[in-house]
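Quick one, tokens below:
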């Protein structure tokens, strides 16, 4: 695996998620629901006792690839409608809502818990980083 420059701030989480697959050697970190759960727990996105199933894994991989597609637009690559639909579906499924913190800052938070909510937190982080 080649060394990569680590993104600062909020994009660090998104970069880490996108880099759960290394396209050059074809190394996939998210090989089953357990590895997805372990990754989400390690990133503080999920409580270890929450179940993760094969459907969650499929959605996570689709979301990761959609994020990769949207990020590619910064380098002149086209954004595909399927990527936008996947991002929008993840935001909708997690029921992202704007919330205000005591310091007066607005942020998006999922109303749903579990793996679906964790995916929503990744989408919310991507949104915040793009602002």
């Amino acid at each position: 695996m080649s060394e990569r420059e680590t993104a600062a701030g909020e994009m660090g989480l998104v970069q880490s998620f996108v880099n759960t697959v290394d396209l050059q050697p074809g190394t996939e970190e998210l090989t089953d629901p357990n590895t997805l759960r372990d990754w989400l727990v390690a990133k503080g996105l999920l409580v270890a006792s929450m179940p993760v199933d094969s459907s969650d894994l499929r959605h996570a991989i689709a979301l990761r690839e959609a994020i990769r597609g949207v990020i590619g637009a910064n380098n002149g690559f086209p954004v595909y409608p399927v990527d936008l639909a996947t991002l929008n579906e993840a935001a909708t499924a997690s029921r992202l809502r704007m919330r205000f913190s005591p310091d007066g800052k607005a942020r998006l938070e999922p109303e749903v818990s579990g793996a679906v909510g964790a995916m929503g937190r990744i989408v919310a982080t991507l949104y915040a980083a793009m602002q």
